[in-house]
Amino acid sequence: MSIVARNLIKEVGDPASRIISNINLVINDGEFISISGRSGSGKSTLLYLLSTLDQPTSGELIINEKQITTLSVEEIHHFRNKHLGFVFQFHYLLPELNAIENVLMPARKNNQIEEKTEYAHELFKIFDIENKKNKLPGQLSGGEQQRVAIARALIMKPSYLFADEPTGNLDSKNGNIVMNILKETNLHLKTTVILVTHEPEYSAMADREIILIDGVIKQNQTRKNTIKNISDKTKFKKTITKKKL
Amino acid sequence: MLFLALRHLFSRKKQTILIFLGISLGTMMYTVISGMQEGMKEFVEERLMSNTSHIKISAREQTIKVKEMTELFFPDAGNYTDIEKKEKTFVRWLVPPYGQREEAHIIYPQGWFDRLRENNDVIDYAPTLSLNVIITKGKSRYASSITGIIPERHERVMSIEKYIQTGNLKDLQGGGSKVIAGKQLLENIGARLGDTILLSVGTGELKPLKIVGIIDFGVKHLDARTLLAHLTDVQKLNKTPGQISEISVSLYQMEKSQIIADQWKKIATDNVESWQEANANFLQIFRFQDIVRDVVTIAMLIVAGFGIYNVLSITINQKKKEIAILRSMGFTPRHIIELFLIQGVILGITGALVGLLAGFSTNLYMATIELGSEGNKIMISHSIIIYITAFLLAFISAVLASILPSFSAGKLTPIDIIRSEV
Lengths: 245, 422
Prior knowledge:
heterodimer, A: alpha/beta, 6-stranded mixed sheet, 4-stranded antiparallel sheet, 8 helices, globular, B: alpha+beta, 6-stranded mixed β-barrel, 12 strands, 55% helix, elongated
């Protein structure tokens, strides 16, 4: 189980300009990877290529032994629903639905609401937003909204979690909370996390740091001493491991 | 996606209600106007059909034409190619011949009877003879017309039976100087059931007839001039045994009457007229009314349709990032199309249903309104076809209006939306 990218190239515009050139990358199961670089370096584009939301101009992408580029529209959406979770800089919650309905939205696709409701409640408890379950997104703070968005990304227990600057719109306190959640998700749920960030502090929490410059990988380094988390948060571990999720 | 579609609709209540009202009003308008028009149409058509058969064969008025007379008396005139001779035999009438040759009647009725009996489209036919008569009662005189019928045939061709208030069409059977008279006519001449009236065709001779029935079409000018008697009685009155002036024909398929009438016209020397031709001016009015109704309804629905189109387009624009996140969650383009199409369909169905209900109750109310003092009420048709058409019109226009924006939403890709947002 892994993500394998071979000779990924992404060109846009006419005449074509290359945003991503010839990227070869293997992401193993359970890794926490950060992609960083300046704005315009192509880090977000790489994330979207790896997460099937964008199609490469050429090259191969294989996730869980599946050749993504050959999948049909239905298959690719089914795959996304089952195996991939997304967190964006903006929470993108649906304003008409309350927090718990937002979280259960991915489950709605396969009529799995009932099976997933219990897990949703747990996630709310772990993320410390239990009392906000029935609030509409407009009634939540930015940090709370982002936590709801992460819960939504995790509800289907995806193998991979893609986060595009999830802290970009948050103050440092809420940013820390979000990063802790990502880190603990990786540690305890064994979810592979791919994080795009330009904040070195958060980037340092990853097992492996990839630095992009002008669409080319300049550094692909595994850290020896990763920062486990910023403030000690044990609640996550307790609840999750107890339930053997 | 029904769940989310409903949430979308409820989250913008004002717009939803406005569009909903637009569709309802359009549907209601259609049902009410149609109900009235169809009701009137049914009323008029029924009255017309009681007096008009599917096809009417009538005698041609035989007017005298100068050319025919010239050819008859001077067969050589006009046949010369030689100019000189032609001038010699040129006919100039001092008083050109004019007038009618004889009373209009069907020249060879038996031929028609044979033909009609063998025709598979024909249910039955009824020969009649109509005359202008003068009614004498005491000292007063009154002009009317009398129609001689064969009762057992006539009732199969025209729906006349149900307008007979007192008596029965069969009372006329076998002749015997009996007559069924219009209600208004009796009032006018001051006669009652059982009275005897004297009729003359203008020859001075008076023939007594006994009133055995009263007929009431509900149309004044008809009721003031209707006298029905047995065909043989009328023929005797006129002293023309065997003569008939009209043959009424009923067909299995009323719609085919025009086609069949056209065929017969080609071979007949008599006038052949379908009921459509006989009532052409009424049918024109109906057609005009239909057009007015359709234009009004379509205008309303177009406005409502544009409402749907606009609101959906604006919504889709505002909700681009939500579309992106739905796609990243694994909802396919088809789901997105569904999400917005459902909203249009819901508006269409609920709006139409409420409009139908409102239209139906309005129609029920209108049917109780009395016109004038005679107790005549507005005729309202409750034909199911009106309601089905109204529903389909509203539904289809709602679907059409939501198809375009929905498909454009389905075409959006998550990456384009995310890029344009950040």
